[in-house]
Amino acid sequence: MSNEHGWATPAPxxxxxxxxxxxxxxxxxxxxxxxxxxxxLGCWLIGGFIVQLVVGIIELMEGxxxxxxxxxxxxxxxxxxxGLEFFxxxxxxxxxxxxxxxxDGWAWSVLAITLLMWTPAYFKAPLLLAGVxxxxxxxxxxxALMDLKVIGHGLAPxxxxxxxxxxxxxxxxxxxxxxxxxxxxxxxxxPGPILKDTPKEAPATKDSLQPCVEKAG
Length: 217
What we know:
Blueprint: H1 11-29, H2 38-61, H3 65-95, H4 102-118, H5 127-147, H6 156-183
Helix pairs in contact: 1-2, 1-6, 2-3, 4-5, 5-6
């Protein structure tokens, strides 16, 4: 999240949108609300799509490959497709349409596998951000397997609480970025990454014998 080209980081807005999705999915998966809420949930997710798409584009423009790509595919599949599907499923329920919703499980499986395989990249991100991703690593595969009818809905609360924790951490991170930036110092602590780059020495030459230290972007 570089400001080299004058962009302010949009990550806090993207994290708030993620938290909204996490909290609302938690409410659905744990039975805090009934399924008559589905069209309203679709509206909230489409709102989140707008935020996360903007965030993803700016992050990519700033050279943040990991965050930019994650925000972009979250915007498309978790937010926009998820929101539109809730409207379709609600209509299917009210109009007695016959829909094989297991196709969602196949699509969610791609998202789950991708998220799991990209997780090591977040070991070099701030610790709390890695925590958000690890919570999603629990929730998304469970949702995929439930949609595939491989497992029953008994694990839905597990996915729900993993999403709740992800949302809470996302709110904290977004608050830390905004407040710490406003005061130009660390007001809210942000622990460093699990893995840190080690300095690498450049080969000695006649022109320069000084070590070259590579810093994480």
